[in-house]
Design a protein that fits this description.
It contains 14 helices and 11 strands. Strand 2, helix 4 and strand 3 form a beta-alpha-beta unit. The structure holds zinc ion (ZN). The site of zinc ion has 5 residues, from loops.
Length: 337
Amino acid sequence: MPAVVSGVFGRVAYPLLRAVAGVNPLVVYHHIVSDEPVPHVERLYGFRSIAEFTRDIETVVRDYRPISVQELLACRAAGEPAPAGSVLVSFDDGLRECADVIAPILQAKGVPGCFFVNSAFVGNAAMAYDLQKGLLADRVTTTSLSRTAESQLRRLLGAADLGPVDLDGAILSVPYASRSLLEEIAAVVDVDFGAYLSDVKPYMDHDQVRGLVAVGHAVGAHSVDHPRYSDLTLDEQLAQTLDSVRFVRTNFDVDYGVFAFPSSDDGVGSAFFAALAGTGEVDLCFGNQGILDDAVDMVLQRTTMEKTSMPAEAILGKAYTRRLYRKVVGRSVVARP
Ligand SMILES: [Zn+2]
């Protein structure tokens, strides 16, 4: 985005939009913060540098009242609104940088975070299929493949008519249901996911998550193995959600159940939420469709702070603008089929 547009959103419009929108609580999310290249996420989403993230948190502290999940749940249980101007800062996927980089910055600024983890990946027991795709896409674009390897990949991907530049795109398009294909692709391009997990340790281990809880951060569930929920049956959606929530409650000894949808909550229906509410095990769910309201009371929508190097004011200014536009056209509430 050109600097002038970012400036308009950031310095001029943002304070006004924030006041007009009156969103409470504002819920934001990130995945990772790093100054280093991160091969397994580089091709999936942009992320904040340490300096950018530190400025995000300074903006949040200046303009909002940071609230913890625990405090927010207490307000909801009492039937009270969150304190005016609340912001909840959340992080998806349980990557090791949450403990190594993000938590120390939050603690220095006095901001409680909520970290959503996948039960299959804590401790680097396995790797999400989308992170596998990210790593493979990075590999095929940063190394030169032999002609044999390239034709094997094209056969595996059924992408014989794609040009060379599209091999990584084809890998990134592999759906959750075909994820076993990724092991075959890995063998061709000499990637060993098991070795990568033990060498790089992309995820937090149990002790790191316990460490976050011990200093007051919250931990929530993010499904078992990060499927896209619109690809699942209702029973599968419920199993992924409840198994991961129970995992978090049991392993990290928390007395609340919060859940953030992996990839997207788009298309998840009201029957899912009715069944979930009936279990009494999940207090609150978090979507990722922006600063919008949700037709279902137990869902709070969140907005991303990543994908750009714009300052927080410009990111939020743009997100508030989108909310106002959606209000004008009558689409500011996420509908549930
Ligand atoms: Zn995720």
